[in-house]
Amino acid sequence: MSSLQAIRDALQQSPDNISLLLLYSRACLEQLQLDEARESFEQVLELDAQQIDAHLGIARVLFLQGESSGAAVRAERVLQQEPENAQAHLLLSRVYLAEGDRAKAIEHFDRAAMIDGTMSDPALERELGRTARDVRRSSPAPLNLEAMASSEGPEDSELTLDAFDEAFDDPPYDWRPETFYTPGDPNRFGTTFADIGGMDELKEEIRLKIIYPLQFPDLYKAYGKRTGGGILIYGPPGCGKTLMLRAVAGEVPCNFLSVGLHEIFDPYFGSTERNLHQIFETARANSPCVLVFDDLDSLAQDRRNIRESQVRNLVNQFLHEMDGMKGENQRVLVIGATNQPWSLDPAFRRPGRFDQAILVPPPDAPARAQIISLLAKDKPISNLDVEALSAATVGFSGADLKWVFDRAAEMTLSAAIHSGQPIPITMDRLISVAQGHAPSTQSWFEGAQESTHAATPDAYTTEVRKFLNAASTQREP
Ligand SMILES: Nc1ncnc2c1ncn2[C@@H]1O[C@H](COP(=O)(O)OP(=O)(O)OP(=O)(O)O)[C@@H](O)[C@H]1O
Ligand SMILES: [Mg+2]
Question: Which of 100, 332, 446, 453 is deepest in the core (most CB within 10 A)?
């Protein structure tokens, strides 16, 4: 009850805040205060008769009050206005199930699952004997994008998935994305946060910027917090930046676009900038969307030092596009990765661009233990001692750890072939391989130290030095 009271108090201050009213109505609905819920949904409609969420809310109240035909009529009306409304499909699924029409219930459930990548409804899933995640995995149909394609005329400059192929044949669209996943694309689920050891801060930052806003849109709206923004991840090679970007695809329930800058360089004057513009346009047209640039290093030079005007123009275009992302409706999260942050233009770090810069350092002891457990999975290892191996691999990157396992497996395999019988990988072998390997992150730290040492101190280099200090403590010398 206390949270209801808190929203009630907030509403007294701003009684016409539609987002707050909706939040309150939903909270009432959740606590089954149906009359109160209905009344405040009606209040929303008095302020704005077009509020689909309020129509839908009343439909839900009706359903809970046992008036399923009234609920169905309202939900159908919502779908006439917004055919891709996942919640309306979900409600219709419940209505049909209650009326005994299982086939129709499944049809609407599947539709909801495909439209909304975050949707899950354990109770309904149990009754229907299918899960939203499985539906998404088994069906590649990118429904929400299809809807956009049909609702926008071909003369519209915004790109949709269906329009991609045609569009790329025509002049302004000569760029093709390396990876473009819709929420239900089965190819995107290969890697998730669970496959990454450590990086808890980064995982949470990504959740805060794009996952939670999609799960709790009203809360974000009520508090005036925007979705998306820019995160720059940086750090020594082999510590999981690229792996993290791949996991974002598996974790984030919205469109996902990944671009290699090398793909968009074009020898013709102005074409590279146009390609970059097109990428940002595509992300905006398909928002909510995560737009990923791995290896930003090709832009990572201070504009003042760049002789090649092509790169300079591209940097300027990039900054311009990032500045254009501030509007409330542009729910795009841009994530860039680099291992040369010190040579990246300081302008990238201004608020509203990559306003969050997060170091991905070599894993600390607990993160190494996690990575070791992940790497050891499904391998024939006798008496794995995670702690001991973690202690023997201080300063190792994830890639270094992977190398230790690969090398030990290779040596064991060779011994097995010669002896003619299967031999497990031993701890001794793993430890001795680790002891013979120098962590590959060392030279990066030395380079970073030098680069920031030589630079004139400004806010940016101070930041870089700060992370170097933080990182050096993480190196557990
Ligand atoms: N935190 C981690 N958890 C699990 N595996 C990891 C982790 N970090 C690195 N690895 C392993 O190391 C490999 C290489 O890491 P990755 O390519 O992501 O590094 P990177 O930071 O992108 O390096 P670069 O700066 O050279 O691009 C991964 O594919 C993975 O097998
Ligand atoms: Mg990488």
Answer: 332
Given a cut of 90, is residue 88 above it in pLDDT? yes
Tokens at residue 328, please?
A: 């409330």
CATH of the domain at 254: 3.40.50.300
411 and 346 housed in the same domain: no
How far does residue 245's CA lie from ligand 1's centre (Å)?
10
Q: Are residues 258 and 401 in the same domain?
A: no
Amino acid at the residue 131: T
- What is the CA(437)–ligand 1 centre distance, in A? 17
119 burial via Cβ count (<10 Å: 0-12, 13-18, 19+): buried
Domain boundary among 305, 324, 359: 359
* Cβ 197 under 6 angstroms from ligand 1: yes
Distance (Å, rounded) from C-alpha 231 to C-alpha 210?
11
Strands 229-234 and 356-359: parallel
By the 10 Å C-beta count (0-12 exposed, 13-18 middle, 19+ buried), 49 is classed as: exposed
Within a domain: residue 473?
A: no
CA atoms within 13 A on the CB side of 133: 8
Domain for residue 446, yes or no?
no
Ligand 1 touching residue 240 (CB < 6 A): yes
Establish if 425 belongs to a structural domain. yes
Q: What is the CATH number of the domain that holds 20?
A: 1.25.40.10
Q: Is 198 in the pocket of ligand 1 (CB under 6 A)?
A: yes
Ligand lying nearest the CA atom of residue 244: 1
Longest dimension (CA), the chain: 82
Q: Is residue 280 part of a domain?
A: yes
| Full residue range of the structural domain in which residue 354 is found | 163-359
The answer to whether the CB of 362 falls within 8 A of the CB of 444 is: no
pLDDT digits (tens, 9 = 90+) for 241-280: 999 999 999 998 889 999 888 777 766 667 788 888 888 8
Please indicate, yes or no, whether residues 371 and 321 belong to a single structural domain of this protein. Answer: no
CA 385 – CA 392 distance, rounded (Å): 11
Cut 0.85: pTM above it: no
- The crossing angle, in degrees rounded to 10, of helices 427-435 and 398-419 is 130
